[in-house]
From TrEMBL:
It comes from Sneathiella chungangensis. This is RNA 2',3'-cyclic phosphodiesterase. InterPro entries: Cyclic_Pdiesterase, Phosphoesterase_HXTX, RNA_CPDase. The keyword Hydrolase applies. The lineage of its organism: Bacteria, Pseudomonadati, Pseudomonadota, Alphaproteobacteria, Sneathiellales. Its EC number is 3.1.4.58. Pfam families: LigT_PEase (PF02834). Belongs to the 2H phosphoesterase superfamily. ThpR family. A motif (HXTX 1) lies at residues 36-39. Keywords: Hydrolase.
Length: 182
């Protein structure tokens, strides 16, 4: 089965993300219900390895934190965009959580996609879309922002590919530690 670790998003944030859909011909939009922030992509593993990964992730001790979703952008070049995304304000906290998750997964012999970590929410695949339409979308939604999201857990998801879209299933969630009162 294909696995990844992500921050699941609440329904109100998914609705805000879903409202961005449209206006770009040939775009393959991700359904709002599948919106998430990937922390680590693992890929195909056998069931026993999934159990080992789950146990390793369960040992992570990390405090809850706030996350800001703001702006839109693309992966690929500006002239040849491939993926349209909503941004996550990069912070040392989310980067450290990512690193702890990668270390835990690798400690049990599994590997993680080694692309540079850039927290985001994938909105659409746009490699066949007209450049001008993508550019206008980026301009029109440059100031996109949601309410600050308290992150209190992360989730191990499985991904099942179908002919229409990927189907994500929450396998197990891992609670973060409550913040220490000041």
């Amino acid at each position: 089965m294909r696995l990844f670790v992500a921050i699941a998003l609440p329904e109100d944030i998914k609705a805000n993300i879903g409202a961005l859909r449209g206006g770009i011909p040939e775009a393959r939009w991700i359904t709002a219900e599948n919106a998430h922030v990937t922390l680590a992509f693992i890929g195909e593993v056998q069931s026993p390895m999934m159990m080992d990964i789950s146990l390793a992730l369960g040992r992570i001790k990390f405090p809850s934190f706030d996350m800001d979703i703001e702006g839109v952008g693309v992966f690929g070049s500006n002239k040849r965009p491939r993926v349209l995304w909503a941004g996550i304000r990069p912070t040392p906290t989310i980067s450290l959580l990512h690193q702890k998750i990668v270390t835990a997964i690798e400690s049990v012999g599994a590997s993680v996609d080694d692309r540079r970590f850039r927290p985001h929410i994938t909105l659409a695949r746009v490699h066949k879309s007209p450049y001008e339409k993508v550019r206008h979308f980026l301009i029109d939604h440059a100031l996109f922002k949601t309410a600050t999201l308290p992150v209190t857990n992360f989730t191990l998801f499985s991904s099942h590919l179908s002919s229409s879209a990927a189907i994500y299933r929450e396998e197990i969630s891992f609670d973060l530690l409550a913040p220490v009162p000041s």
